[in-house]
Design a protein that fits this description.
homodimer; 301 residues; alpha/beta; ornithine cyclodeaminase, domain 1; Rossmann fold; 8-stranded parallel β-sheet; 32% helix; 28% strand; globular
């Protein structure tokens, strides 16, 4: 049994190599099992159990979030773990810190959706929210499209500057923006990464042809897209229907008077996709992604 | 974060000290949360996720069973783990091997039920099934009643002799029996510990006043008691209603033309119990027991 830290995971799994790993999960979705996440509510946050089987690997992520006295989300510190077992032998293979794993697989799924859904000639990519996951999300989008300009924006300027400094040497130039509008106005791909509880991205801000990765909303009450976005885009993809309709942007579908075609990412990666001008991918994060990424890491050891 | 092996758990937690730990869980059941176990089926067994919150501890047990090529249940080898976190801080406290923990807390719950439900002057205790958990079950019953004679029985004589040899120096004399009937005929307390899938313990084998701990049945299709036992005993207690009605002896209640009063163990330990001549405790094993026992161990470190 191997025990891996976040640093180990960081050294063993890049966003770029994780993209085909999670792509295969969605291509071979019939080889997976994933009961709904279980939530345990506590006064200042929650704990979540996310079990899944992917091909010959069974596993579970145990994670959650926790607000400190000031109401700030506590940064994960060896809090979140993934355990994986081999299905054929039953053996427990590894226990891994899951913070870096989660950030990496989440970005990789953005990469998969972007590869299949965004305009092939996309050159400008916008990222709203400059938290811990954003650098990996930038890497994911730039791995699948020939991006010439990356716009970033955060209401918290300090956090935006921090990300900018962190990515100073990145192959693509990063442009901090002074407003949300400036960030998205010319973007071919918009990725939203905030913990917002109200819509802020409006249909009228977007250019004619673009793809949106809506990553921030992953719990009831969280939301980044205004109702007119779901109303007017041609195709809305989701990672998993049940989860998205409770926790993702799709939870607000009933507010839409009309909406685009709804497709699963599994369907899209299996070839079931026609391009339209505006598309949305609604990502909530799946246990099958964690288990597949953890097994990939284990197999590299 | 502490990482504990089965040996560590064995050194840190006796059955005797675990009894008040699990007793408190049932006494303070309103301070717990326990969603139903999640099962992931695999071709040769299953994996189970068992999350729970007990007071200020959140945790999960990840376990299951796995049949090898010969169809034999694989002995757990660092397979089953418990993870616990502190609810107030969110911190991950420990990851423990869960095989010894499970055997100990299961025996401890038998101890609690036996203390509250069995005749106070019980002197003879019978144990059917001589597997890995039986020695701890003997310790549990002998911890709460002044037992003068322990009868054991197993269809597999070798296993019975092994248990006998293992407990040669135990404070109470152990009597291997040549038949089920011999084992239970004079028993004040009968504890059933087999993986049987059909009833074998019949009402007519039992003496007039006795208490049965039905521990073996913990999954759909498993069963140790004939229908006439549930039919005729005065009180049937269960550890948790949903789980017992799917996995315990209670799953066969509909076969009974009548049955005794049904009570939860939580109700019984809170004083809600009147003695009757024959009683059953139906144990399926709960995540709250694992989390409470793991926290107790952690607090001793």
């Amino acid at each position: 049994m191997r025990l891996l830290t976040n640093d180990d995971v960081s050294n063993l799994l890049t966003v770029e190599e994780c993209i085909p790993v999670v792509e295969r999960v969605f291509k071979e979705i019939e080889n997976t099992q994933m009961p709904p996440k279980i939530y345990l509510d506590i006064p200042n946050g929650d704990f979540r159990a996310m079990p899944a089987v992917v091909s010959n690997t069974a596993g579970i992520k145990w994670c959650g979030f926790h607000l400190d006295e000031t109401g700030t989300k506590r940064k994960g510190n060896a809090f979140s773990k993934v355990i994986i077992n081999d299905v054929d032998s039953g053996d427990l293979l590894a226990i891994m810190d899951a913070e870096v794993l989660t950030a990496t697989r989440t970005a990789a799924v953005t990469g998969v959706a972007t590869r299949y859904m965004s305009p092939e000639n996309a050159r400008v990519a916008a990222f709203i929210g400059c938290g811990l996951q954003t650098s990996k999300q930038i890497q994911a989008v730039c791995a699948v499209r020939d991006i010439k300009r990356v716009n970033i924006f955060d209401l918290d300027r300090e956090r935006m500057v921090e990300l900018y400094n962190q990515m100073e040497d990145y192959k693509t130039e990063i442009h901090p923006c002074i407003s949300l509008e400036e960030c998205v106005v010319n973007a071919d791909i918009v990725t939203t990464l905030t913990p917002s509880r109200q819509g802020y991205l409006d249909y009228h801000m977007l250019q004619n042809v673009c793809h949106i990765n809506a990553v921030g909303a992953d719990a009831k009450g969280k939301r980044e897209l205004n109702a007119n976005v779901l109303d007017k885009v041609g195709i809305i993809a989701y990672d998993e229907w049940e989860q998205c309709s409770h926790s993702g942007e799709i939870q607000y579908l009933e507010e839409s008077t009309q909406c685009g075609v709804l497709l699963s990412l599994a369907h899209i990666v299996s070839g079931g996709f026609c391009r339209t001008d505006k598309t949305v991918f609604d990502a909530t994060g799946l246990a099958i992604e964690d288990v597949a990424a953890a097994r990939y890491i284990y197999d590299k050891l």
